[in-house]
Design a protein that fits this description.
Structural class of chain A: alpha+beta
Radius of gyration of chain A: 27 Å
Largest sheet of chain A: 10 strands, antiparallel
Shape of chain A: globular
Oligomer: homodimer
Chain lengths: 784, 784
């Protein structure tokens, strides 16, 4: 249930009908626009009031020292932090003598709509100033998915019932003051004024500011140009300074007249290119945008999104909230990845400064699996970004005494930025997560050029890492000791099942791809001995299992530990990490987020159905979901073991994470992985999708709250369409060559001219599953 | 072998015959004087050149913020750091127009002697100034063990062959500039000028400075008074300012004349007492010292030390280096503990700023066992200090979700100052180490008042901690998971054998003392149920054992880990922690310092002789001794399993740690625990001493390099004397009632009138023991 009245339920958009200042920062995140390259938070045009002003450019960061009272070998000395760059969204308005500010005067009406099909954020407000002047402001904003350096705003103001004189100031503002900056005086000094002016210029309706970051040495250019349409009285003036460029429009508007300004904003940034080069790039982008014009850009955006929805839409019938959330999620996932091209997809996308703007394993393990089947080209870009950091990852491996590549736990441009190694560097699974995303993409897309270069490099270097990290013990078992799995309430454990099974897969896939491309492998120094080593390690990987309990042990010895005192833990003591010390969390059986359960999803074939049932029941009882990376995975396995209602409940939690601000931190940016989890819970949960030896297998079963479900997805250049009903599922091919699929273990072929209808498996009797005291997900009820 | 020619071998003193500036800082540590209350590094009287100026007052510290890039619940926010307080050692000298500075002019002769029997540091130097004036300076310095607030210097200067005019400036100097301050600007700002002036005054030959520390709020007073004896021409003037008090003496000295100044220095400090109170306390101490006079103070000091040596001397015959080192060690251990009274004994004593002046488990596990048998009264004081911090330790336990008391890993006045919890807070064994020191002292001294109050509190509150930290698993075993044992190259492990056995002892001893004093126990809320819980936990404590290898596993799973690649580790990669990341050290079989081997010493009865032999062989092969807390323990068990030569080799390493600067950091202060290890290696190693159910048992066996050994020690108000020869050992009682002892499992009685001679056990054939590549201790050869 959407608990805040601010947002209305609508299948194709997110609509805000009143402006609630208490959710302003959350709204700025959910209304954020991005193309993966530029990110604009949903700040009001006039800049104030704001929750958190935010303009982000992917890869623009500042370094800051990481302090340690007791340092250790290999600790990173500095970290990367995303910075708020020049704000190009700002359009201030003076109405007669009063600044337009919704905190004063009277808001007669307010509506904001984020339209998932047009990719536009529009705002419509009627306001009476404190001295009685009434105006209507309509603004529409986009960050272009087609012209990736460009964002644009159509801003128009008109009088309500009496003539008004208006002054519109369209600005570029650098080094905005931010609320709640860091308490560390050193970090604060760096991040409060991150940009050093290099050049400012203005001419006609155009202005450009060029800055650089002091320590990371990045050059950032921001420019704006304008088209104006107003009464004859309209005047314009332009000025620029180090941190401010401003075009001022003045007009006297009679009733029926309006002032309409199209503002084009372009950004360019580089660690290498010269000041003139960056400046000219920005002005060139502006020129292109002006030529396309507002209407042209709106059309391009719509066409781009039509393409996306045609092959990636998920339509949920019967539960309008989930229906909206599913598209809201896909829209934001697309925004984060669409034009990232050569840059990371951070955990928050470009929607907020949370986690310092870092990318984690979330991207490969939650976001890319969705994009693989909905916008596969973005996945190739994302993995090419990882590939571009390979040299840094190899250096890190050398520093850590390992072969191959060790990718960072958290980063913006590739350097390890984690200062707490038990939950950072020790989480070596990120390497296998990247490898898994690579093999999934290769299998689902069949991109040969990618495979023999990027995939081979990434798989081989991660396989080398695993081979040097693990060792064959006296019984011949391949052990991986002292690492941290996904569950951050355990750390530095031996033989984490998730890590070991993912490493096994990594090693096997590396061997397979090396054998598939022998000459490319040879170029990389991979010989048959190395391949044999990888395979031997994979075959003998150690997977701890508790024979007495009949369940897998999340890591060796885990099931011997004391079980957390859930009954003695009150609701306000969650998330536990804010109320209990790590030492206590690590030594007890309490799981922050799906770990063994995630292994059962991603390495499904390694578990038989009895194990899955017993494992799920065991780990459900000790999993507290203090992470947003959990509910979707629990949804998937809940469905598999037969508890489709529990799957539905978890789907609700994943889907509404940000719309309901479940973790109370959406203000810092969206939880992209949880948004991705909406799709995962629907497609891998309700529809039961798994990749099985190069084929897609489904086992659909609808929860009672959902009447029907229509899923479109891409697989090997085909667009597949599933229509799930209560009784049966119809598979059809929207485009592409015939393809084999699997329905409940039955292989069949579907082609464009022949949809196939299959009866759903009957609901098994759901086993008894319970969660820790107070941690049951909210039960999702039928909405009709 | 003493490798640096600076120090000469002498049985009762440490003598420096030439001034080597390259070992100046090390010399300042080894020549440091202290009474456990005040510490004066062995800086030259004139202040320069210096390695590191140092004046420390036990318990005078400043707080500084502990920075974390990623903080966690329960992390300490600030730490305590020892500060260099007002320097009262300073006596500058101007000879004609030249300042006396050994870096200029010519040093004709130089000698410094630290005399272990007189407790005086004397210096004798002949110097020709650059302009040709020759003088002899003789200074003798003491920090009084009898008047604990007082130090004193007898300083005299005389011309060599021509008359000279001298100016002597005796000073109190606060906020001295220190070399090599912290690179953290915040810490540096705090610690560079730690003292804020509150009052300064001077009168006649006396001056007092009173300061306070800015953040920790401690008031520190320092005063000096003088007696002067010189020719009639002698003049004196006095002045004081915020950070400097100075008495200036001028005299023209004919050949045969001399200027002699006795300088008394007193310190007083308090967190609570007013400025006038602290000031008056300092001046009162000065008045007392002046009345005693220099000769009187010298006599007192000698008498104090005569008492100590009469009951605590260890005389080694045949190996003069070890003979000297044994007394050097005992002297410094005594200095650290003698008058600490209500304060901690830090890891470096008061000899340098190393480890921020913190006390660790070293005190209870290495230093107090020596003092228990040589100066037992100091042990009661040290444990009463721990007891005085009990409320803080209880609060820390509450914060950590535990019952009872959790003592800090490192501290000055009782707050946890460790910022890296895996090697700090997780090392819960410190609680059992304190309990062990308590029971050892109680057993060896029989101090009833101490037992029913201090001992009962400390044992019960630590037992409560263990009981809440561990738990009974499904097999009924009492497990202690996720803790760090003594070996700092492993962390957060389950069921560390040392920890579990020490916890067991802690629990049993707590139960015994509670049963012994039922009414005192009742007052503390200890009932029979709780006692039964402690005993049940102790009885079922889990001790992991590797059946296949036939050895104990240092912690559960340890012997399954990969063995460190010792052959691939070069000499310059030690200590490993400076060249390898923690993640790698923790996950492999490599031991920084005796852990399981320490368990075999302290909990000797928990292992049979076959286990001891196999365990020792196994752990020797993977122990690298990157800690100074290791060699002595290895010496003890080497002797027990029959390798007396190896015991001797390790004794050499422990004994010469600081005299040879083996770890290259003696400049920061002495390694008190290693110094204590000299005695431990001799008494528990060569003489084979163990406490066995309230009796002392010995199993003496001399290495070939030592002709004979005479050990005096206190036990239950008796002074026992052992004279070890190659063939036999003679036990005699120097004072006290007859007592039972054990010699090689044979119980016998010794009384003052009847020494007992016993044949030593024959040397068993030494088993083959090897150390990691390159880590064998230096073989100690016969010196004769």
């Amino acid at each position: 249930m959407i608990t805040h009245p601010a947002y209305a339920v609508d299948p194709w958009c997110l609509r805000e009908r009143t402006l609630h200042l208490d959710v302003l920062a959350q709204s700025e995140s959910v209304f954020a626009l991005s193309n993966g390259h530029i990110g604009w938070r949903g700040n009001l045009d006039e800049g104030e009031p704001h929750g958190l002003p935010g303009t982000y450019l992917n890869g623009v960061y500042e370094t800051r020292p990481l302090p340690y009272a007791e340092a250790g070998f290999g600790y990173p000395e500095s970290g990367e932090t995303v910075i708020n760059v020049t704000n190009g969204k700002l359009i201030r308005l003076l109405v007669d003598d009063q600044p337009f500010d919704v905190r004063y005067g009277e808001v007669l009406s307010h509506e904001r709509v984020l339209d998932f099909r047009s990719g536009l954020l529009s705002r419509d407000v009627e306001w009476i100033s404190p001295s009685g002047s009434g105006i209507r402001v309509r603004s529409t904003r986009m960050v272009s998915m087609v012209q990736r350096s460009v964002a644009a705003i159509c801003y128009q103001v008109e009088p309500l019932s009496d003539a008004v004189r208006v002054v519109v100031q369209s600005e570029l503002q650098s080094n905005e003051a931010l609320p709640g900056a860091s308490s560390d005086p050193r970090a604060s000094a760096i991040l409060d004024n991150p940009l050093v002016s290099e050049e400012h210029r203005c001419c006609d309706a155009r202005a450009v500011l060029v800055h650089r970051t002091a320590r990371s040495g990045l050059r950032v250019g921001a420019g704006m140009d304008h088209l104006v349409d107003g009464p004859q009285s309209t005047n314009m003036s332009v000025e620029s300074a180090a941190d401010l460029a401003r075009i001022t429009f003045t007009a006297s508007l009679e009733v029926g007249e309006r002032l309409r300004i199209i503002k084009f904003v372009a950004y360019g940034w580089s660690a290498q290119r010269s000041l003139p080069a960056v400046r000219d790039q920005v002005e060139a982008s502006l020129a292109g945008a002006v030529q396309t014009g507002w209407a042209g850009m709106v059309d391009e955006q719509r066409a781009y999104l039509d393409d996306f929805w045609a092959s990636g839409d998920v339509e949920v019938v019967g539960d309008p909230e989930i229906a909206q959330a599913a598209r809201f999620s896909l829209f934001h996932i697309l925004q984060a990845g669409s034009r990232a091209e050569g840059r990371a997809i951070p955990a928050k996308g470009l929607t907020g400064p949370g986690y310092d703007g870092h990318a984690f394993w979330d991207t490969e393990s939650f976001v890319l699996p969705v994009l693989t089947y909905t916008a596969p080209a973005t996945v190739a870009h994302a993995l090419r970004w990882r590939h571009s950091t390979l040299e840094m990852a190899k250096e890190r491996a050398t520093q850590l005494g390992l072969k191959g590549a060790v990718f960072p736990w958290r980063t913006i441009v590739g350097a390890e930025c984690s200062s707490y190694w038990p939950a950072g560097t020790a989480a070596f699974h990120v390497g296998a997560d990247i490898a898994d995303a690579v093999t999934r993409y290769v299998s689902a897309d069949g991109d040969d050029a990618f495979e023999r270069r990027v995939a081979l490099d990434l798989l081989a270097e991660t396989a080398r890492m695993w081979w040097s990290l693990g060792y064959h013990d006296r019984e011949g078992r391949f052990r991986i000791d002292g690492v941290t799995g996904p569950d951050e309430y355990s750390a530095i454990a031996d033989n984490n099942v998730y890590t070991n099974l993912m490493a096994k897969h990594n090693l096997v896939c590396a061997a397979q791809i090396a054998e598939r491309y022998p000459s490319d492998a040879q170029e990389r120094g991979i010989d048959s001995t190395e391949i044999a080593q990888w395979l031997r390690a994979a075959q003998s990987i150690f997977v701890p299992y508790d024979e007495v309990l009949g369940v897998h042990s999340q890591a060796e010895g885990f099931t011997d530990h004391e079980v957390w005192d859930f009954a003695g833990t009150s609701d306000d003591q969650y998330p536990l990490l804010l109320h209990y010390p790590y030492y206590d969390l690590y030594r007890k059986q309490v799981v922050k987020q799906a770990d063994l359960v995630l292994a059962m999803h991603l390495r499904s074939d390694e578990f038989d159905s009895g194990q899955k049932l017993r494992n799920f029941a065991y780990y459900e009882a000790i999993t507290v979901r203090d992470s947003s990376l959990s509910a979707c995975t629990q949804a998937v396995i809940a469905a598999e073991i037969g508890d489709i209602q529990l799957c539905y409940d978890y789907l609700g939690e994943a889907a509404l994470m940000d719309l309901d601000d479940i973790e109370h931190n959406t203000r810092d940016g969206l939880h992209l992985a949880s948004l991705a989890g909406t799709w995962i819970a629907i497609v891998a949960g309700i529809a039961g999708m798994r990749e099985r030896s190069g084929t897609l297998a489904f086992a659909p079963r609808l929860p009672v709250g959902i009447t029907s479900l229509c899923i479109r997805m891409m697989f090997r250049k085909r667009c597949i369409r599933l229509e799930l009903g209560a009784e049966s599922t119809t598979y059809s091919l929207v485009s592409g060559e015939p393809v084999e699929l699997i329905h409940c273990d039955e292989v069949f072929q579907v082609s464009m001219d022949r949809p196939v209808r299959k009866l759903n498996a009957s609901n098994p009797s759901a086993p008894a599953i319970s969660q820790p005291y107070g941690r049951r997900p909210e039960k999702r009820c039928v909405q009709r």
